[in-house]
Specification:
homodimer; alpha/beta; 32% helix
């Protein structure tokens, strides 16, 4: 593991590190914020999964999360959104290939060689983190924005017991029925839509649900409402009697101004689930 | 005036606008955050002047200021740091020319044609703001980072009565004695150092002082301490019995992680001076 940078922030340390990842077959970079409380022992972890075009850096510098994480004693993990590099497959579109891993394990050429983001985020990166930093593996929660909200919701539902709580900012809720999903799943997972349902939060809400509280925020002025389909997840959450909250926030769009506005509320939500 | 973008943020609106500026002879872009309270009438204004290489955008997306401004009912103004454009003089160095206006009115070729940032920030932009937005001209405060801290301190001391309070994050404190200053003042203002003293916070502190409270934060791990010379301003503040606070913050560097960490404290400081 290589240290890229460490900056003091809100009494803790915002670090950026890279490592040679086996799952994705390339060097992966991640951000990790350790709050001041980490100096005294392991702290709970809130995962933040980012959206299309993002790297580990966007949320780390624009979401304003560290202030609230420091207050509650939570670490924050900011993984990258895909494998990277000259020898990693890519596409000209911003929503396929590098920067658009969609948190799945690709089975199709040319993507399968590197695009194993499900395994990377759920298996390999956790081992790197828990082996190297003062983090409490028994106290994890997860959130994300847009494509990352999709990742957070699907991981939380498919890994019962791992996360105490899950939240999402303007998540892609129903990718098997959206152009943000069908295109990517066809490329990464193949044309057979049967392989897609494990990666659709609305379908997973109907079949699995989440064994804790769910919080979702969605802006009413979001320019991508047709692709995000918030109504699908809201319907599924209520129909399955999922404990949780779905908020439509008047006038907010898809930007990080929206994410940062409600970050304090999400961190409070997770801190409560983690008993902090 | 053209609207570039408006995003809802913390109940208010983060806008970006541009206008043809007479003082700098080019189109200038600025950010303006209006807190929710602006819907009910004019609100106080906190100016934020940015540092070398920055545009109007850096602090707007990375300083985390909107959350605290919304709580206190302050507007935030984020001017650009220089004139811009293909016909505007520039230099290969990051610390001269575009992105490095140093908040002075240049008198020397080739800079004088456009580099009139003192007039732009203290005269022209205020007229644009107070004529077009619900802002209270009688309730202004000013802050800034690095080169912008220099700008904030020099404007506050040379325009008595305009600003209720002034603060700075890791400011360039003594440019007439630093390589961040001598090079630029020689280029913009000419070789005669007599013309420089109006733009040196340490010298102005000795001759003018500020008719209110001053707050300065400086990180002890700042990579530019030799250029910033915090000891010069701290000495001048105490020697001249200037009411105010100079804090050395252990372990913090020059980045926006430092700025955002202490933003809440600075906004609280200004809100108190503005009786909010």
């Amino acid at each position: 593991m290589k240290k890229i940078s460490e900056n003091r922030a809100f009494g803790g340390v915002q670090g950026v590190y890279s490592h040679d990842a086996q799952s994705t077959g390339c060097e992966m970079t991640f951000g990790l914020y350790l709050p001041p409380q980490a100096a005294r022992g392991p702290v709970p972890v809130l995962w933040y999964l980012s959206g299309l075009t993002c790297t580990h850096e966007n949320a780390m510098v624009k979401a304003g999360a560290q202030e609230h994480a420091a207050r509650r004693g939570l670490a924050l993990v900011f993984p990258d959104t895909s494998p990277r590099g000259a020898d990693v497959a890519d596409d000209e579109a911003f929503d396929l290939g590098q920067g658009a891993g969609f948190y799945v394990n690709a089975t199709q050429a040319p993507w399968a060689a590197h695009f194993q983001m499900w395994d990377y985020v759920t298996e390999e990166l956790p081992r790197v983190l828990f082996n190297n930093f003062p983090l409490d593996e028994e106290a994890q929660a997860i959130t994300g924005h847009s494509m990352g909200g999709h990742g957070a919701l699907t991981m939380a539902m498919r890994l019962p017991g791992r996360f105490a709580s899950v939240s999402a900012f303007s998540p892609i809720t129903h990718p098997t029925a959206s152009d943000w999903g069908r295109k990517q799943f066809a490329a990464y997972l193949g044309a057979d839509a049967a392989a897609w349902s494990d990666h659709d939060a609305t379908l997973l809400m109907q079949t699995h649900g989440f064994d804790g509280e769910v919080l979702v925020d969605q802006g009413t002025a979001d320019q991508f409402l047709d692709l995000l389909m918030p109504e699908a997840l809201a319907q599924a959450m209520t129909a399955s009697r999922q404990p949780g909250t779905f908020r439509m926030q008047a006038g907010y769009d898809h930007s990080y101004f929206f994410v940062s506005t409600f970050m304090a509320s999400h961190i409070r939500f997770h801190a409560r689930a983690l008993r902090r």
